[in-house]
Amino acid sequence: MFSSLSFRRGGLFLALWLVLGARPGAAQIIRHYTTGVIQSLNTLNPGAAMGHNSSTQATLAPPALFGTASLRLGFASYHAPGSTAGLVVESGGVLALAALNGLAIKTYLAPSNVPQQTIALSQLLSLQVLNAGRATAEFTATKSFDQIELVAGGLLNAYTLGLVEAYVDAAAPLPVALVGFQARPTPAGVQLSWQTASERHNAYFAIERAAGEAPITFAELGRVAGLGNSSQAHSYQYLDAAPGSLNYYRLRQVDTDGTATYSPVVAVQASIRTAGAYPVPVLRGQPVHTALPATARPLLTDLLGRPVACPTLPALDGSLDVDTQNLRPGTYWLTLAGTASQRLVVE
């Protein structure tokens, strides 16, 4: 379930906040039934509405003269907004319109007794449907809840209403809860970072990149090991030291059983930068220092665009030096993918 997409200027930066775990296709939905009676009023056999048993029911019997009956049931855990909740009810005979208007569903989040959401049953069912016998009233929760209540009342004459069961349809627990995935351009390349709230059977993350040119084809850049199982928040990072000008990134999360999950795509425009070479000009045999990482593989060409051998050496600070010992005096261009070419003069 993905929540939002934001844009940041200064080199296209797209950050997607998401929860990772849904396999390609529809998410698996699990139905949860109530597990306990929280409170009841003027209700016979309140425990008969717990769980899933279509042959039993609790009976709400509001007394005459605007009496009220209610039954509040609890779930084993709370459910998030967007979940589909429902009640299966059965009329105790022909009900008047006033009875339907006096029926309501309420949700609660313990320990509060203030309703999270209140829905008139007349919004979900017609009197004709309800009088036909058993009916299901479903709604979408707008707030988190772990209790659901059926309230009946508001008539001069007494009547009864059966509550067979209450349920919530919610997505199955996700193997990895990814709460952030970002990509930003830096002088060293594109810095990818992501954070997990929890992990279950998480073997590793594979980082995949595609260039901005069509056709879009993803290739794996590298892997970062997962924590396996963890209920604690954790942060990950990966540096793409040789990005193109426009790059698309995604994570392939792989479970210990080999099952893979893909995140949505993050796009980033790499910073237009140079190799940061100095000194310029340089005396032949003197190393040229750069701001490139030691793993970079720059291209050296002459003024006609012909490639020239470019031996490199790792510097002590982790950057890259160019060895000019075998270069003839002249003018060259030093280039790395994702950078602007820099003029290099050897004397």
Percentage beta strand: over 45%
Structure class? mainly beta
Question: Biggest β-sheet: count, sense, barrel?
Answer: 7 strands, antiparallel
Low-confidence stretches: 1-26
Q: C-alpha Rg, in Å?
A: 32 Å
Distance between the termini: 60 Å
Can you tell me the CATH class of the largest domain?
A: Mainly Beta
CATH topology of the largest domain: Jelly Rolls
Q: How many DSSP H or I helices? A: 2
Number of domains: 3
At CATH level 2, the architecture of the largest domain is Sandwich
Helix fraction bin: under 10%
Number of strands: 27
Order of helices and strands: EEEEEEEEHEEHEEEEEEEEEEEEEEEEE
The CATH H-level homologous superfamily of the largest domain: Galactose-binding domain-like
Shape: rod-shaped
Summed over residues and divided by their number, the pLDDT gives a mean of: 82
Could you characterize what this model shows?
With 347 residues, the chain is mainly beta. The chain has three domains: 116 residues, Immunoglobulins (Immunoglobulin-like, Sandwich), CATH 2.60.40.10; 143 residues, Jelly Rolls, CATH 2.60.120.260; 59 residues, Immunoglobulins (Immunoglobulin-like), CATH 2.60.40. 3% of the residues lie in helices and 54% in strands. The chain is built from two helices and 27 strands. Strands 14, 15, 16, 17, 18, 19 and 20 form a seven-stranded antiparallel beta sheet that branches. Strands 3, 5, 6, 8, 11 and 13 form a six-stranded antiparallel beta sheet that branches. The chain is rod-shaped.
